[in-house]
Amino acid sequence: MKLAFLFGSNVFIIPNNIISYVDNDQTNIFLKIRSIFKKNTEQSSLSIDTDLKDTEGRGLTIHDNEIVSSFGYKVSKTHNRILAKGLKNDTVFDIQQLDNESATKLDRNILAELQAHSPDAVLRISGDFMMGKMHVAVDNERLSIGRDSYYASEARAGLNELTFTPSGLVVA
User: How many domains does the chain have?
Assistant: First the structure.
Protein backbone atom coordinates (compact mmCIF):
# COMPACT_ATOMS: atom_id res chain seq x y z
CA MET A 1 0.00 0.00 0.00
CA LYS A 2 1.51 3.33 -1.08
CA LEU A 3 0.36 6.22 1.11
CA ALA A 4 0.76 9.99 1.07
CA PHE A 5 0.96 11.56 4.53
CA LEU A 6 0.12 15.27 4.57
CA PHE A 7 1.51 17.21 7.56
CA GLY A 8 0.67 20.91 7.26
CA SER A 9 1.74 21.89 3.75
CA ASN A 10 4.24 19.02 3.49
CA VAL A 11 3.54 15.63 1.91
CA PHE A 12 5.58 12.46 2.29
CA ILE A 13 4.81 9.50 0.04
CA ILE A 14 5.99 6.06 1.08
CA PRO A 15 5.14 2.46 0.14
CA ASN A 16 4.59 1.65 3.79
CA ASN A 17 1.68 1.90 6.21
CA ILE A 18 3.75 2.78 9.30
CA ILE A 19 5.13 6.06 10.65
CA SER A 20 7.84 5.62 13.29
CA TYR A 21 9.74 7.82 15.70
CA VAL A 22 13.06 7.53 17.46
CA ASP A 23 13.15 8.00 21.23
CA ASN A 24 16.30 7.22 23.26
CA ASP A 25 17.87 5.55 20.18
CA GLN A 26 14.93 3.15 19.97
CA THR A 27 12.55 3.12 16.99
CA ASN A 28 8.86 2.94 17.94
CA ILE A 29 5.66 2.78 15.91
CA PHE A 30 3.61 5.98 16.12
CA LEU A 31 0.93 5.22 13.54
CA LYS A 32 -0.07 2.14 11.59
CA ILE A 33 -2.67 2.35 8.84
CA ARG A 34 -4.58 -0.93 8.96
CA SER A 35 -6.96 -0.12 6.11
CA ILE A 36 -8.09 2.80 3.99
CA PHE A 37 -11.57 3.85 2.90
CA LYS A 38 -12.44 2.59 -0.57
CA LYS A 39 -15.42 4.24 -2.20
CA ASN A 40 -18.17 1.85 -3.32
CA THR A 41 -16.86 -0.92 -1.07
CA GLU A 42 -19.14 -2.20 1.68
CA GLN A 43 -17.98 -1.68 5.28
CA SER A 44 -14.82 0.03 4.09
CA SER A 45 -13.19 2.56 6.41
CA LEU A 46 -9.96 4.17 7.48
CA SER A 47 -8.62 2.05 10.34
CA ILE A 48 -5.55 2.82 12.45
CA ASP A 49 -3.39 1.86 15.40
CA THR A 50 -1.72 4.66 17.34
CA ASP A 51 -0.12 5.23 20.71
CA LEU A 52 0.43 8.86 21.66
CA LYS A 53 0.19 11.39 24.47
CA ASP A 54 -1.02 14.95 24.68
CA THR A 55 1.39 17.68 25.74
CA GLU A 56 0.44 17.05 29.40
CA GLY A 57 1.43 13.37 29.17
CA ARG A 58 -2.09 11.89 29.04
CA GLY A 59 -2.02 8.75 26.90
CA LEU A 60 -4.27 7.50 24.12
CA THR A 61 -3.93 4.06 22.56
CA ILE A 62 -6.11 3.01 19.63
CA HIS A 63 -5.99 -0.47 18.06
CA ASP A 64 -7.99 -1.11 14.87
CA ASN A 65 -10.04 2.04 15.65
CA GLU A 66 -10.99 0.73 19.10
CA ILE A 67 -9.86 2.72 22.13
CA VAL A 68 -7.57 0.54 24.25
CA SER A 69 -6.65 3.23 26.78
CA SER A 70 -7.66 6.84 27.12
CA PHE A 71 -7.31 9.60 29.66
CA GLY A 72 -10.37 11.74 29.10
CA TYR A 73 -10.16 11.92 25.31
CA LYS A 74 -13.27 12.34 23.18
CA VAL A 75 -12.71 10.22 20.09
CA SER A 76 -15.03 10.43 17.09
CA LYS A 77 -14.81 8.18 14.05
CA THR A 78 -16.30 8.22 10.56
CA HIS A 79 -15.48 6.11 7.51
CA ASN A 80 -12.59 8.43 6.59
CA ARG A 81 -11.59 10.22 9.81
CA ILE A 82 -10.50 9.64 13.41
CA LEU A 83 -10.47 12.72 15.65
CA ALA A 84 -9.23 12.79 19.26
CA LYS A 85 -10.05 15.87 21.34
CA GLY A 86 -8.48 16.56 24.72
CA LEU A 87 -9.93 17.65 28.04
CA LYS A 88 -10.11 21.30 26.88
CA ASN A 89 -11.78 20.30 23.58
CA ASP A 90 -8.47 20.90 21.77
CA THR A 91 -7.47 18.71 18.83
CA VAL A 92 -4.80 16.31 20.04
CA PHE A 93 -4.82 14.04 16.96
CA ASP A 94 -6.76 14.16 13.72
CA ILE A 95 -6.28 11.88 10.73
CA GLN A 96 -8.48 12.25 7.69
CA GLN A 97 -8.36 10.42 4.38
CA LEU A 98 -8.94 13.02 1.69
CA ASP A 99 -11.35 12.31 -1.13
CA ASN A 100 -10.18 12.84 -4.73
CA GLU A 101 -11.80 16.27 -4.99
CA SER A 102 -10.10 17.55 -1.83
CA ALA A 103 -6.74 16.12 -2.90
CA THR A 104 -6.89 17.94 -6.25
CA LYS A 105 -7.18 21.28 -4.39
CA LEU A 106 -3.79 20.91 -2.71
CA ASP A 107 -0.73 23.03 -3.58
CA ARG A 108 0.71 22.52 -7.08
CA ASN A 109 3.98 21.01 -5.78
CA ILE A 110 2.07 18.48 -3.71
CA LEU A 111 -0.38 17.72 -6.51
CA ALA A 112 2.48 17.08 -8.94
CA GLU A 113 4.06 14.59 -6.49
CA LEU A 114 0.72 12.86 -5.96
CA GLN A 115 0.24 12.52 -9.71
CA ALA A 116 3.80 11.24 -10.19
CA HIS A 117 3.58 8.59 -7.44
CA SER A 118 -0.15 7.66 -7.47
CA PRO A 119 -0.63 6.81 -3.78
CA ASP A 120 -3.58 4.65 -2.76
CA ALA A 121 -4.69 7.33 -0.29
CA VAL A 122 -3.82 10.84 0.91
CA LEU A 123 -3.98 11.11 4.70
CA ARG A 124 -3.98 14.54 6.36
CA ILE A 125 -2.63 14.48 9.92
CA SER A 126 -2.94 17.39 12.34
CA GLY A 127 -2.91 17.96 16.08
CA ASP A 128 -0.69 18.73 19.03
CA PHE A 129 0.80 15.58 20.56
CA MET A 130 3.88 13.81 21.84
CA MET A 131 5.78 10.96 20.19
CA GLY A 132 7.75 9.72 23.16
CA LYS A 133 9.55 12.87 24.37
CA MET A 134 9.23 14.62 21.00
CA HIS A 135 6.60 17.37 20.69
CA VAL A 136 4.81 17.46 17.31
CA ALA A 137 2.37 20.22 16.35
CA VAL A 138 0.65 20.24 12.96
CA ASP A 139 -1.90 22.65 11.53
CA ASN A 140 -2.95 23.33 7.92
CA GLU A 141 0.25 25.22 7.08
CA ARG A 142 2.97 24.16 9.50
CA LEU A 143 4.65 21.06 10.86
CA SER A 144 6.70 21.57 14.03
CA ILE A 145 8.95 18.93 15.53
CA GLY A 146 10.38 20.16 18.79
CA ARG A 147 11.74 23.65 18.02
CA ASP A 148 11.97 23.12 14.25
CA SER A 149 9.13 24.21 11.96
CA TYR A 150 8.48 23.28 8.35
CA TYR A 151 6.35 25.78 6.44
CA ALA A 152 7.30 25.24 2.80
CA SER A 153 5.13 23.09 0.59
CA GLU A 154 7.59 20.24 0.56
CA ALA A 155 6.89 17.00 -1.25
CA ARG A 156 9.14 13.98 -0.79
CA ALA A 157 8.80 10.38 -1.80
CA GLY A 158 10.68 7.59 -0.11
CA LEU A 159 11.39 4.00 -0.96
CA ASN A 160 10.73 2.60 2.47
CA GLU A 161 9.68 4.55 5.56
CA LEU A 162 8.91 7.82 7.32
CA THR A 163 10.57 8.35 10.70
CA PHE A 164 10.43 11.31 13.09
CA THR A 165 13.77 11.86 14.82
CA PRO A 166 15.05 14.54 17.21
CA SER A 167 16.95 16.03 14.24
CA GLY A 168 13.91 16.09 11.92
CA LEU A 169 12.04 13.87 9.51
CA VAL A 170 13.76 11.04 7.69
CA VAL A 171 12.19 9.77 4.48
CA ALA A 172 14.13 6.68 3.49
Answer: 1
